[in-house]
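ping. complex inputs:
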Amino acid sequence: MNLIDKNLMLDQNQEDRAQSIRDSLRDAIIDRRLGPGSKLAEAEVGALFDVSRTVVRSALQMLAYEGLVRIERNRGAFVSNPTPEEARQVFDTRRLIEPGIVRAATVRISKADIEDLRDHLTLEERFMNERGPAARRAEIKASGDFHLKIARHSGNAILEKFMDELVARSSLVIALYGRTGVSRCGHSEHRDLLDAMERCDADRACDLMLHHIDHIEADLDLREVAAMTLKDALAT
Amino acid sequence: MNLIDKNLMLDQNQEDRAQSIRDSLRDAIIDRRLGPGSKLAEAEVGALFDVSRTVVRSALQMLAYEGLVRIERNRGAFVSNPTPEEARQVFDTRRLIEPGIVRAATVRISKADIEDLRDHLTLEERFMNERGPAARRAEIKASGDFHLKIARHSGNAILEKFMDELVARSSLVIALYGRTGVSRCGHSEHRDLLDAMERCDADRACDLMLHHIDHIEADLDLREVAAMTLKDALAT
DNA sequence: ATTGGTATTGTTGTATGCAATATCGCATGC
DNA sequence: GCATGCGATATTGCATACAACAATACCAAT
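pong. complex structure:
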């Protein structure tokens, strides 16, 4: 018993600071408090979190690996601005894997977890009915979280990680190319999806998920964005 | 440990050194020159590549992010040894995304690229007919590369990255749980797959890919491995 | 012989210093 | 007025120093 207690204590005490900085930055990017292109200076971030640049660097590299941040040598880290092509790839990938996730989750999810998701939906709807940019951000965040919660019930940690990345990148894409900011129909679609899952109708749930992703993408305006620097233009 | 390719290092003069160290370690893990559980001490790796621990640390963190290395706080980095459950998740995920990759690649691939893949197949077969552990390693590496090359023709960089991770993790899994080391039927299956792609028969290609993945997984012995330390046993 | 405790050694986590590189401001020339 | 060149400034890349922690060796006691 001494062994176990000790291990638990250590686990709780030692929270990884780089990890928590990563999470904070990640949330800020997904919430659009940090827009695409924003500079993330090591010293500045370090001062905010009261850590050295070493730790900040580590956090930035994680974000770079999942594509939320672009690191340019000797220039620093910037919040990514995905091209329309990258945006398409994000949604193509989601179309490929989310139906499988929904199928797995439909089989495994419990009644209690369905209830939890229903609570989440009412939260989404509350944000939907509020006005203002803060509510808009909360709405987008909650909408992504719905997809992540489903992934968490797929029983597959790898798929879960992939979805983390895809949902985060989707948020960036919507920030850049979204027309209405978030599609109006999104939430009734979430509800229909959940209903199908509750009925254990996996085929229907997959179908709804596919159309849902299509609708999210249809709300984007993926024409090449105008203001491109010469440098970026030549980089392609 | 003879991991270093001096020529490669010289090529990368100004390029990102951490990246090239990551690639070298990655190859060594995939090639099983570094077996699951091996300790990767920062100072040791740094001495081999003639860089400071800072750079090594960055490389190790990348590998940890893609699941090839496990970093334990204050203890260091070790080559992962995936559990049977993780192994199943790797193959479940491959079953989910590789058919889509093959479908996309079948549409987009050119005649010349098909030829290139055919050359790759003859290489695989050569390794298959050789004896000895070096040939075995080369065979496994080439087999994974076949899947990666197809992913590279999907036209989707995100899927490509996901496949990089999945193929690397598969190699680890096969190293741990493989019976014959590499399935005998694998290469004729590769050839059949390529034939279907050449005929632009995407449905057939998807089907072949699914069965191919099943066959790889069927060659594994995923019963719980015996020798578990008490510490690991309590960690679950 | 085994357990428990303590000193020693080695390794990792983080901060910081220095060199290399990019960025910005300013002056100069056209 | 605008562009160009140059020096000052700021920021990153990397190595290293030191602190914190874990692993090991060693010794004493039962």
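The longest strand of chain A covers residues 69-72.
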